# Entry
Amino acid sequence: MKAERWELIVLGAGPAGLAAGLYAARGGLETVLLEANVPGGLTLEAPRIENYPGFPGGILGRELAARMVEQCVEAGAEIRYPEEALKMEVGEIHRVETDGGSYEGEVLIIATGTRHRELGAPGERRLLGRGVSYCALCDGPLFRGRPVAVVGGGNTAAAEALYLSEIASEVTLIHRRPSLRAEGALVEALEGRGVRLLLNAVVEEIEGEEYVEGLRLRVERRPLELEVEAVFISVGREPNSRLAGEAGVEVDDGGYIVVDERQRTNLQGVYAAGDVTNRPYKQIGTAVGQGITAALEAYGYVRRPYYWE
# Structure
């Protein structure tokens, strides 16, 4: 199959990839974004985003993602989806094979993001899609008026519990540590919405035959049975970096792509941005900034302006 030629290939169309595509296309680079799922990334799963600058009072995750996609396309970038990358070859010309075609580019930006981390409890995989979910926005409406639980202690878990508090009859937030890691404003909101907190609690099993019927917990070393009809798991994410690693891109012990302050990887003409990198903060705002940096570096790499080194 003859490969399409582009100046820039961006793998992933989440906030980092869309920001990179926007800046690269505005700079005049022939840019294609390859997305395995739907453009927008995990932003699509956020019920409401309240800490992204420019939106006092917050904005729905789907709306923010849609605006980013629209702006990227209007700038001249092309987004191909759903196209899952199957193989990546890095060299003088970079090559990406997908389930839909072949692409060659002078420069490559990897913005493949992360995937949900599994809890690892018995019953989790067996009951996936039958009460076990990793996305409250996607599946929460199925459990309107029913008792549900959220497992996790960060901002995402707190935001999902808040969203579910408007739908479910009762929401219990379960966290294995003595305090939540979520922002103070979110913690206060949880209290105001009547979300029940179970701290120092570990899920030992997700129970049910055909569908989720409850959780078997250990709370401060004491057993506890919790009757719920759904459990939403939000215990972190893992990087989608396997193809990059197989192509020779350096990753750290956690699988995150190692980049410098200019989003450069260890391979010439290959950059990475967003949650897939080893940069410490996984936020939409930081992903956008990294995507912009990677795009400006990519432009310099291709066009070699006088100021670029």
